[in-house]
Amino acid sequence: MRARLPAVPARPHRDDVLIAAAGLLGGLLLWVLGLHGRPPVPGLPAWLTLVALAAISGAELLRRTAPLTGLAVAVAALALDTCTGTLIATVVMFTDLVYAAVLYGGPRTARRIPQCAVLVTVVTTVVLLAVRRDPEMLMFGIVIGVLTATPAWTGLIIRNHRDAAQAARLRAEQTALLAEMDRTQAVAGERARMARELHDMVANHLSAIAIHATAAQTIDDPGATRQALGVIRENSVQGLAEMRRLIGLLRDTGTAGGADEPAAVPTLDGLEALLGQARTNGAGSGLTFTLDDARHADGTGPRTALPAPVELAAYRIVQESLTNALKHAEPGEVAVRIEQTQDGPLGIAVISPFGDRSGPRAPGSGAGLVGMRERTTLLGGTFEAGPAPGPDGTVWQVRAQLPATEEETPS
To answer: What is the pTM of this model?
Structure first.
């Protein structure tokens, strides 16, 4: 296997280059002016101070890209500088490299360097006091703490604030993303709900208009034509009224005219009127419509008060089933049955004659079955639709079970 090549260090940051250059120039100026801390250790040339200055200036170039390497070089350079005269520029750059190692190093490094700095300060102070027994050694220990522990803990505090700010920014971005996703889902859900309502409210009337308009065009009978035109007018007026009602729901009624009256929601009590309208629209098609409301017909108790979403979904399912029967069903009986036992689900069944027609009486988009299934799924119920064998031949049946548990109300 080929050995992994060492990673090429990144280029120094521009600010680090400026810091290194300023430290080097400042140290050279102090050297030229003769501002040394003290004479070097006997036997060591004074120019070694410049070597320490150059080394620690080079370490400043690594303060972001390789902070631990820079700190190791700085420790060696500070030791050499202490033995050869001590330039203040070298000491200042050492404290900066301690600070940078905590701020830009790894998480483990950021935790250990401050602890090690405190340990070195305490141990050095205790050893000096034990050896020299001079109170001035306590001041020397304080100086060591200022050079090591202070920049280390300062870097740790700033790093914690930086990490907290980054975490807060990340949480804010995640919150904004989730809010945008919720908004998108809400808009999509509202558009789907509006599409279902618009289809269920208007498709019935438009189907009746299309059926009777076709009849008026094909039957050469003034009486039948007048009857068809009457049905067309009635469905046009009703469709326009329901469209206005739907538009009113979409508008902010509180600012439109100061009226905040709730809009009427269709309920199962309106099924008789709905079937009456279907009988009118289906006149001449050979279809008859019957309603069997068998809720609690077994004497298990009074009718339960159904939640408004359940009543609306049941009403729309029956309405769309009747519309489909007007479009596609063969002449015969269209039976609607509503049933529910005590604390049980609401059952809906619409059965109509099924035959092989060359085409529907009125064009359709196929969205009706999709809308009925969506309404049932949103309430956690079950839905099925399709041909099935019947006593007099094949029938088309629509069956739905809607969960409807509510407290009993007096009948």
So the answer is: 0.51
